[in-house]
């Protein structure tokens, strides 16, 4: 597990993802992972229940915390949204986004 401590996690009020708070160094930071990110990055099934969203979040907690800690350097006291691109290795972003765009266009 990373050096960051998860304080709490919950499904957002509109069932559109997970909000969580992490202790980073001597402070706290709140993050948000949308349902869309959970679907695109972590293969959450469409229309999954709140419980499934939270279960998947905990299954992928280590990966989420690593990305959250990298995004923390540009964070403020506001809730920081983690995007799909935050989970794509920097060398693969261009080719992956092209594939993702073309796959969405085909739907």
UniProtKB/TrEMBL annotation:
> Which portions of the sequence form the region Disordered?
86-107
Q: What is this protein called?
A: DUF1488 family protein
Q: What is the species of this protein?
A: Paraburkholderia haematera
């Amino acid at each position: 597990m990373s050096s960051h401590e998860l304080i709490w996690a919950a499904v957002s009020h509109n069932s559109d993802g997970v909000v969580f708070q992490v202790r980073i160094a001597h402070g706290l930071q709140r993050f948000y992972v949308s349902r869309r990110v959970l679907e695109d990055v972590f293969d959450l099934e469409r229309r999954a229940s709140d419980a499934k969203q939270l279960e998947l979040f905990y299954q992928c907690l280590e990966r989420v915390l690593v990305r959250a800690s990298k995004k923390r350097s540009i964070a403020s006291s506001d809730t920081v949204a983690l995007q799909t691109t935050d989970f794509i290795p920097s060398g693969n972003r261009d080719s992956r986004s092209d594939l993702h765009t073309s796959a969405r266009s085909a739907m």
